[in-house]
What we know:
Chain A is an alpha/beta fold.
Amino acid sequence: MLEPQKKELKSLFETMCVIRCFEEKGVELTAKGKLPGFLHLYIGEEAIAAGVCSNLRRSDLITSTHRGHGHLIAKGGDVDRMMAELYGKATGYCGGKGGSMHICDLDCGIVGANGIVGGGIPIAAGVGFSIKYRKSDQVAVCFFGDGASNQGGFHESLNMASIWNLPIVYVCENNQYGISLHCSKHQNVENIADRAKAYNIPGMICDGNDVLDVKEKSSEAIALAKNGQGPVLLECKTYRIRGHAEGDGCNYRSEREVEEWLAKDPLKNFRRQALSKAWFAEEELDAVWDACVAKIENAVQFAIGSSYPKPEALFENVYV
Amino acid sequence: MRTLSYCDAINEALRQEMERDANVFLAGEDIGVWGGCFYATHDLHAQFGAGRVVDTPITESAIVGLAIGSAATGLRPVVELMLVDFALVCFDQIANQAAKMHYMFGGKIRLPMVIRTACGGEGNAAAQHSQNLENLFTQFPGLIVLAPSTATDAKGLLISAIRDDNPVIFLEHGQIYGMESEVPDEAYAIPIGKARVAREGNDLSIVTYHRMYHESMEAAAILQEEGIDAEVIDLRSLYPLDIDAIIGSVEKTGKLIVAHDAIVNSGFGAEIAACVAERALYSLEAPIRRIGAPFTPIPFTPALEKIYLPNRNRIVEAAHELMK
């Protein structure tokens, strides 16, 4: 294999590992009662953020969701400042005033995560409009879940983006559950991508647990969107391994179902392929993982070592 | 000086700001060739084209999202929600998103956007096309809420709103679009957060805005003939609120009438009354009176709407009671 290709594969794996380590640390810290608030974790869905964002430049723009840590990391967010935000510290991305669901970093193209299911979808229409208005060559990627695809804002926004051919890729992470409700009970379509027909735009489906499939399909989608053939609706089939938020007992699904999806874990998937095709030796992959563990441990230390915001911060940034 | 209608003053502010700054664009329902439901955007489509005067589908959440996303990434959108009643369709985008993004993202995002919307309907527009909902917006930190009463202020405040880096709710009023006042030709900015003493007086203070400002001025003229000297304060800006101007007036007159079109119960007048009670209770020589709409949806029939809408006579009656 050529060296650039190998570097690219390694980078995809590394991004997935950073996300997984960050999220597993979230599980651990929540269980120990170390973090205020609650976390919506991305475990099992890492291939989507890693695959899609590997096709984006720093200047390209994304909107994210309540389950947004993976998007932020894959788009270049800094894990130290993310972890500090989870701890509510002054060094966090939002100075501790946003928390897990509201991280934003325009410097790396993150127009913000969102606590409202589907809340970012109308905003992405504005981002796409702005790109076109400014005659920029950026692209906008709007992440959301299967649950959000039932919100009114989804329909309003895809309709608007389609009539104006906005350069937006709508990445639907179909993780099968809207909180506790299985998708078979919250929508009457097998494939959310089929809804693209309603807007006369391309609809695509990929295996959201296979980072290479995500990368390939999202690359096609981005090219279409940038060439004025968009917007595009890309559905990534995946599974939410954890509950809706940490602490969710998941009494609405069977352990067997979870086990079936654990077997399709995107990191294991990649390892299996990488070893069988001899892209990497096992030690190389282990070294990537170990480095990510250390990176997240450092992030935790950074967060713990940081100060809380001063009381006067309460009144800062209400207005410009 | 020449006079312009409230509607044309808004139109001129939009045109001058669009000429000044290529990042300013307009979007909303039927604002293009049609010129907007109240005609406030007339001729702008012809001058600036469909790329900057953008007709949208009838999808209010997407319209406000369009403003947020484009404002966050370098543009200065001015979007129109045809009627304030329709803001209830997209309140997530206004209150959960636009109002909060600067704060919850630690100041990283600025939203220089304006939402223009018409309150008060056109008369006989019934329960879903006539409301006055300003108190909903003033409840959300992060939003600036303006409510000009005259053409002069409409132009100057809209220019300030467009140049401001915060999300601004620019509340127009359907029943005063045709009213004229002196409007300078050039672009001018009226500072946000400053009330205007529209009429000086010593006997009682009337604090008001929008259509009821005009009713208050008429009431003050009637009272003048009876020898009662009313001061009229036109708030212009509901957030930030020029509370010092109100307190100063009440300290002078000792009597307060708050007059607005909105429902009295939990209406914006309650905030003014509470502020005065907190800061100037001992200056009051009589109870505070609030004039506004009753606690019912707005009826359609002229026979009932006439009773529903507050007017100058109710202000005069309240003044008589206060002066006893």
